[in-house]
Amino acid sequence: MEKMKRAERMVAITQVLMLKPNVLTPLSLFAERFGTAKSTISEDLMAVKESFILSGQGHIETVSGASGGVRYIPEIAPEEAKQFLSRLSELLSNKERILTGGFLYMTDLLFDPSVLRPLGLIFASAFRDKLPDVVVTIETKGIPLALVTAEALGLPMVVIRTGNKVTEGSSVSINYVSGSSRRIQTMSLSRRALEPKRRVLVIDDFMKAGGTALGIRNLMTEFEADVVGIGVLVEARMTEEPKLVEGYLSLLQLKELDFYTGKTSVVPVVSY
Q1: Boundaries of each Bacterial purine repressor N-terminal domain copy (predicted)?
Q2: How far apart are CA 209 and CA 184, in angstroms?
Q3: Which CATH number is 6-74 given?
Q4: Contacts with 90 (C-beta within 8 Å, 6 or more apart), sequence order
């Protein structure tokens, strides 16, 4: 294999780090792969670190010692996040997204990788300092959003079911009041899915009254888990009625939605 030039090597190092976010990579791996000394790799990494800082795409952490190395922590630049949420709020404010019954159609966006990845980075940046152990969501539309957040944080994800599944084994189930339907429903989680006393980050796509989030919080107490954060993409704020949970973070607010007039307004609420 022909020896790489420094610029080519730096590009390759950047690609390796970005493909494995939050994963500790020893310097020896780079040295062996590119056939060069660790001291040379260290110099390359200094330049790569600077490029990440300047681009606002994250930063590199260095872990010293025999078992140390470097890991890439993905982030999103504040201005980029602000612009992204502004564009997303405009998309969601389109009157064509109003459904019969006064619902806001978001499914297409919640399954679009180009939308999901920035949202995952925004949530990760907001909750990283809470040091969660696991990201938890409830099926179904919140799953993609929780998954990209878990990836950005380098954490596993757990999905709460809205009913018992035989394939899940022994489960813990509770009843809760759904904010959208005001009906009593059941959520359950396999005892094998979550170890006791974990630090949990809850991520969901929409909050109306907060009944689902409250139900998840109550379910987590059955696992002696500590809910360190709750993040939702959109919260309904068409009235001043308080939510059933406090201390949550919403990225967008639904201020107005009228099926008959076609008026809808979604605005960003996260400031940078």
Answers
A1: 5-74
A2: 14
A3: 1.10.10.10
A4: none
Give the bridge partners for 267, in sequence order: 253
- Are 115 and 145 in contact, with CB atoms under 8 Å apart? no
Average model confidence (pLDDT) for the chain? 92
Q: Are 245 and 78 in contact (CB under 8 A)?
A: no
- What's the pLDDT at 64? 86
Query: What pTM was estimated for this model as a whole?
Result: 0.91
Are both 6-74 and 78-268 of the same fold?
no
CATH of domain 78-268: 3.40.50.2020
CB burial of residue 177 (10 Å; 0-12, 13-18, 19+): middle
How do the domains of the chain map onto residue ranges?
A: 6-74, 78-268
Contact between residue 72 and residue 17 where contact means Cβ atoms under 8 Å apart: yes
pLDDT band at 58 (very low <50, low <70, confident <90, very high): very high
In tens, the pLDDT along 232-249 reads 999 999 888 889 999 999
CB distance 126 to 120 below 8 Å: no
Q: Which of 250, 217, 258, 227 is nearest to 126 (CA)?
A: 250
pLDDT of 62 above 80? yes
